[in-house]
Design brief:
4-stranded antiparallel sheet; Serine Threonine Protein Phosphatase 5, Tetratricopeptide repeat; 424 residues; single chain; Immunoglobulin-like; 8 strands; 4-stranded mixed sheet; 10 helices
Length: 424
């Protein structure tokens, strides 16, 4: 149930009424106040204040201020006069209800009108913005059309000027010069019937081309004249074949870019390793060439491990190790297979061999060293050698301190070590 606010203070002038409502600790907002011409309501749970005003007020210019646990109203009177009281006291219940409902209806209509006015203003603003945009676009389009028209006129003038220049040049060429012989104006048919004069064939060694002028031109003929004789070219050169020999190279780089001593040393080591493999593994002669590649065997072992064929993976890794015993990943992968097969001592041996080959420790082999320590530590723990296993896990944590899984496993091993001590 709301608590009616009976305590309030007010004072008035000819033009305004000043009302103060104490809220007693309640917090009010603007949404808790409703005011119309004759009706004022303040709903601040749990308090409620309601009043039918003595006369009409200008609710648009009236204000309310909230602060220090009070609400201060400044109600502007529509007509200057002194009120006998703040509220309408002699009104009956039905009249009060009518005034209250009428005030709510007027407030709703006013809110609706304000919403419609805002909507219309927004539409007008959009319409104005659209018209302004269309005007700008039209001005820009007109400017572009004017530029195009100017360019078109400019090109047309240049074309006309060029045509006039061509006409003048043609007229100038068609006028015969003084001193030209009568033979230059002979008909074209007579010129075609004339026999060409003999020309001297130039020597083969010279690079100059000489042209024999026709009779009657006297050096004044153009190069496009029909009287010009055919150009005499030297005899073609004799065909020949050029052979280029290249030095055989094992490496793809050019000889000037390589280091010959290091390349020869590498080739010698490869040949020696291949010789040892062929002598020690004479039983592998029936295998294909790719099956003698350690990398190919490693990939085959990885595929078998993924399918759960751990024995087949171990056999593939064994053969790869016999071909090349300097690859630490072969020992790491075989150690993983031995862990799955519960060959714990062999897993420890392979992990130790892999860690031995992964020296010196560098950032590139951090991941492989972590795997080596974890797999050897796992094998130690499964053999109940928790102290040795904890050493490997702590070594792995030093390499990769952010690995939460290794940290959890190390914590479990510490508990397993501490349990026998507590029980004793």
């Amino acid at each position: 149930m709301p608590v009616w606010l009976r305590e309030h203070s007010w004072r008035q002038t000819l033009t305004a009424v000043y009302l103060s409502l104490p809220l007693r600790g309640a917090r009010a907002t603007a949404a808790d106040i409703f005011c119309s011409e004759r009706y004022l309501k303040v709903s601040v749970p749990p308090f409620l204040f309601e009043a039918i005003l003595y006369a009409a007020i200008d609710d648009t210019n009236s204000t309310a201020k909230i602060g220090n646990g009070n609400i201060f109203f400044t109600l502007c009177k529509k007509e200057p006069a002194m009120w006998d009281s703040l509220t309408l006291g002699n009104a009956g219940k039905e009249k009060l209800q009518y005034l209250r409902e009428n005030a709510v209806l007027k407030a709703q209509e006013k809110a609706k009108e304000e919403t419609e006015a805002k909507k219309l203003a927004k539409q007008e603003h959009k319409k104005y913005a659209l018209e302004a945009t269309m005007k700008l676009e039209e001005a820009e389009r007109k400017r572009i059309e004017d530029l195009k028209e100017k360019e078109r006129e400019k090109v047309t003038k240049e074309l006309e000027l060029w045509k006039n220049q061509q006409k003048d040049a043609y007229k100038y060429k068609s006028v015969p010069k003084k001193g030209e012989s009568h033979q230059e104006t002979e008909p074209l048919k007579e010129r075609k019937t004339k026999k060409p004069t003999k020309t001297r064939i130039p020597d083969e060694g010279t690079s100059k081309i000489r042209l024999k002028s026709t009779k009657g031109c006297h050096g004044s003929c153009s190069i496009f004249s029909p009287n010009l004789k055919a150009e005499q070219l030297p005899a073609p050169r004799a065909a020949a074949t050029i052979r280029v020999n290249f030095t055989p190279r094992v490496f793809p780089t050019a000889l000037r870019e390589s280091r010959v001593a290091e390349e020869e040393e590498w080739l010698h080591k490869q040949a020696e390793a291949q010789r040892i493999i062929n002598s020690d593994l004479s039983e592998l002669e029936d295998l294909k060439e790719e099956e003698k590649n350690p990398d190919w065997l490693k990939d085959k072992g990885n595929r078998m491990f993924a399918m759960g064929n751990y024995l087949g993976a171990v056999n593939a890794y064994n053969l790869a190790v016999r071909l090349n015993d300097k690859l630490p990943l072969l020992y790491l992968n075989r150690a993983a297979c031995h862990l799955k097969l519960r060959n714990l001592h062999k897993a420890i041996e392979d992990s130790s061999k892999a860690l031995e080959l992964l020296t010196p420790p560098v950032p590139d082999n951090e991941n492989a060293r972590v795997k080596g320590h974890v797999r050897r530590g796992t094998a130690f723990c499964q053999l109940e050698l928790y102290a040795e296993g904890l050493q490997d896990y702590e070594a792995a944590l030093k390499i990769d301190p952010k690995n939460k899984n290794i940290e959890k496993d190390a914590e479990k091993i510490r508990h397993l070590i501490q349990e026998p001590m507590q029980s004793s």
